[in-house]
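Chain A, query sequence.
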Amino acid sequence: MDSINGEMKLTNFKDDFDFSNPNYFKASDEEDKKQGIDFWICNIPIAYRQRRKKCPDDITIRYKRPSKEKTEYNKILDGTLKAKLFLFNFEDKIIFSTLESIKSALLNNKFTSYANTDGTWFVAIDLENIRYFECNK
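Chain A, predicted structure.
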């Protein structure tokens, strides 16, 4: 992080993490695949999502797979997704939101579903439909 006039500014998010720090814990393969947890900070399970330039004002959640394997959408609704905090890394900002806020948007149909060319589906939730905290890079 850089300090500019007393403000903290994120430069390169991945560089800001010290992976040798005992407060940073990478999730196990099982936690990642079955519970949607990418890493832990201070005992808080966090899901990390890298956002693409083409989706500047929404977050996406995988909705369906051709294999019928359980998706993030299913895990959020049935309670098996255990990440309490979502971190979305956009090109120009980082968005933090809670599992509860995202689940509320899904339960209240505050999303649009889209098909990918690979046969998977995802839902896009506009940032207006969730509670979040934003940090500019």
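Residues 18 and 24 are 7 Å apart (CA to CA). The chain has a mean pLDDT of 83.
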